[in-house]
Amino acid sequence: MSAVAALLRPRSVAIIGASADASKMTGRPVGYLQKYGFTGEIWPVNPRAEAIADLRCYPDVASLPGAPDAAIVLLGPDRAEAAVRDLAARGCQAAIVLASGYGEANEDGARRQQALKEAAGSMRLLGPNTIGLVNLTDRMMLSATGALEVGELPAGRISVVSQSGGILGSLLSRAADRGIGFAKLVSTGNEADLDSSDLIEHLVEDEATDVIAVYMEGLRRPEVFKRAARRAAELGKPIVVYKVGRSDSGARAATSHTGALAGADRVYDALFRQHGVIRAETFTDLLDIPAALASGRRMEGERVAILTSTGGAGTLLADNCGLAGIEVPAPDMDTTQALATLLNEDPAAIGRNPVDVTLAGLRPDLFRGAITALLESPAYDAVVVVIGSSALATPDIVAGAILECQARSTKPILAYVSPHAPHLVRLLNGKGIPAFATPESCASVLRALHRRTLPPAPAPAVADGALLAGLPAGNLNEAESKAIFARFGVPVTREHVAIDAVEAETAARALGGEVVLKILSRAIAHKSDLGGVKVGLTAEQVPGACATMLERLRAAGAPAPEGFLVQERIRGGVEMILGFHRDPQLGPVILLGSGGVAAEVFQDTALRLLPIGRADAEAMVEELKAATLLRGYRGAAPADIPALVDAVMAFAAMAGAAGERLLEAEINPLFVLPEGQGVRAVDGLAVLQ
Ligand code: ADP
Ligand code: MG
Question: How far is CA 141 from CA 10, 134, 138, 145, 146, in A?
């Protein structure tokens, strides 16, 4: 039995610092274990009590009758460390430390937390600063949360991992009120040892768990999370995450634009997307989406039928579906005919969606017939039944009809309860019909129900130790940077490095036509800011432009440049930005976006963690608003999207090969030329460690 398994299903539990006073927080855990019918051994430890409840109490850990599978430490931070040391010595598998005043508090606390971890040795720790765990599958509560006081807690197929204890309690009571059941709930608190990824990894394999809901502040070990998410996708067990920290601007000071565009929270978005994890946009979604997924049903497409007996609520729902990108198409001919016959109405009046059955809604047989017709229609992937005020008096009839129809179909069927009727929501959920109190919830749930398949994991990067050998730390200049990119197949401008104005003019003649002259300097990351870019010069104009550039640099006090860069002028095309940076928590990230001067204004970007596969690169392009431009907007020639995808792949391969020394890299702009003409990197920047 693993330590996490021992925590979730212990055969014996020691409760260190248990109180005989049931009204105290320290009196709760024994009470909860008994109340929920724990059948294993409960060993309270308290030198000042003979017995707690009807249980023998032990003076210390050493005198316990055996090594406990799990322990709850209810002592304050001053005494918890000694208890943890004793438990580890006694052979306990895992201990939960509830006390706060550790890493979350201050530096002293952080030191205390480190000492606690060391005292645990090979024994695993949950917490500190946690409210413990609740196992409703086996009815074992290792917690002191007051949320366990609430009436009936139904068991279900959703497990919860929360870094916050308070949120766990909040979910527990909200779910109970809504008739939604849980399997296991664990609060990981400060994560001195076991973290949310450990718990997710364990719960993915739990036979009683079909869906995992996660309240996340941040990930300590993204690699474990990724592995767990892959495994969950393999088993068809969705992970739904609500992550805080979205408002954190996260934009750190960085040399390139990429750092400023890739806020930390957006990198989490990329991580979730790439690993098939569903992100809950609102806190209510964190309960609603798992509740619907727990039915096991999925939508094969995005088309929904709305059946309503109240016009307003149907329209409200249809509107919200539209906003969420869910289609609400009119019924096909056969379905329209079936509904018209059933309801004895004119097909012209009935062939709409929402399907309004105002009067028939009160007659269960017609209501059943209408649901069945919609579920059987090949035009729909799911049905939402709107429950209006008229159903309040007869909730069992509505529930009965839906249940009967549900049993004959594999498509999802949801209920939107329009009036304020918590008892009805509870009743429906309790019977296995996902029911929601707002149209927004229904819409986000429908989005999440759409079946997604995760493309196979892309091949890991192949490192090339020689790539950056001999190059200095800091910024490389444009020519050096682009030379690296070009080695991986990123098409760059034809260009020459010139030492002085004479060489620059010769280079311009060799290139022919109009050229672009740039200052070449490792010290200048943004050349145009210092007048260091001149587009559209003839060879004759080049020497004069060189002189002006040098003059401006001197005036600005900039160090002497390495020389000039003379390059072909690229015309036409869409300007994009292609960047790379390292997220301090999640690792190497690639970014594609609308480029040019306004890149940071529009924030039109797509992010992925490396490595990526071709499907990722294609999806990045599709995610952008600029995709519309690239496809050829209003008569403009479509751009060379396949070449752009190739460039993204080449750039990603370059970043992978470069390894840890490459801190940032950027092409801004990357010109995407008309179809068949490829792309050109006209600028380049690489920052090395
Ligand atoms: P900076 O260091 O200021 O970013 P760039 O090399 O990106 O300098 O040049 C600034 C702008 O000049 C680019 O965004 C692009 O619009 C234009 N430009 C630069 N090089 C070329 C080129 N070879 N052909 C056409 N336009 C160019
Ligand atoms: Mg640039």
Answer: 10, 5, 9, 9, 12
Out of 514, 517, 533, mutate this one to test ligand 1's pocket (max ligand atoms within 8 Å of CB): namely 533
Residue recorded with tokens 């608190």: 189
Residue 648 near residue 590 (C-beta atoms within 8 A):
yes
DSSP of 428-452, one letter per residue?
HHHTT--EESSHHHHHHHHHHHB--
Peptide bond into 354 cis (omega under 30): yes
pLDDT digits (tens, 9 = 90+) for 629-671: 999 988 889 999 999 999 999 999 999 999 999 999 999 999 9
Given the structure tokens 């996902």, which residue do they identify?
A: 434
**Which residues are near ligand 2, the ion (C-beta closer than 5 Å)?**
668, 683
How do residues 276-292 score in pLDDT, each as one tens digit?
A: 999 999 999 999 999 99
Strand partners, 520: 563
Spatial contact of 360 and 367, defined as CB atoms under 8 Å apart:
yes
DSSP string, 232-289: HHHHT--EEEEE--SS-------SSHHHHHS-HHHHHHHHHHHTTPEEPSSTTHHHHH
Question: Which of 245, 191, 199 lies closest to 220, judged by CA?
Answer: 191
Q: CA 430 to CA 424: how far, in whole Å?
A: 10
Q: Which residues surround ligand 1 with Cβ inside 6 Å?
A: 493, 516, 518, 526-528, 533, 535, 567, 569-570, 596, 668-669, 682-683
Query: How far from each other are the two terminal CA atoms of the chain, in whole angstroms?
Result: 45
- Give all domains of the chain, ordered by start, each with its CATH number: 300-449 (3.40.50.261), 494-568 (3.30.1490.20), 574-688 (3.30.470.20)
Q: What is the pLDDT of residues 31-45, one digit of tens each?
A: 999 999 999 999 999
